[in-house]
Amino acid sequence: MKKTISLHKTVSRMANEIIIAIGLLSIAIGVLQKLFHLDSIYDPRLLGLTPKDFLAFGGIFFLLAIAVASRRILKHLEILIENK
Q1: Which of 53, 67, 69, 84 shows the smallest number of beta carbons within 10 Å?
Q2: pLDDT band per the 50, 70, 90 thresholds, residue 80
Q3: In sequence order, what DSSP letters do the residues of the chain get, joined into one string?
C-alpha cells in the first residue's frame, strides 16, 4: 500500500511553516531594534513600529501557527475516528 500526501496537507504544512518563519523574523527584528536602542540614544523605529510591536507580532504569529496546526491535527483525528 503506497502512501500519498494530498495537496491540501502539503499546502497546510507550508502555510504553517511560513507563519512560523514570519514570527521568527518579526522577533529577530524586534530584538535587533532593542539592541540598537540600548547602544545609542537614537530611538529606532521601522515603519513607525517599536521593538515591542514586533515582539507582539511574533507572539501573534506563533499563536496563529498553533491554531492552524491544532486544527489540522483535529481534522486528522476526526478522519481516523470515522474510519474505525
Answers
A1: 84
A2: confident
A3: ------HHHHHHHHHHHHHHHHHHHHHHHHHHHHHHHHHSSS---BTTB-HHHHHHHHHHHHHHHHHHHHHHHHHHHHHHHHH-
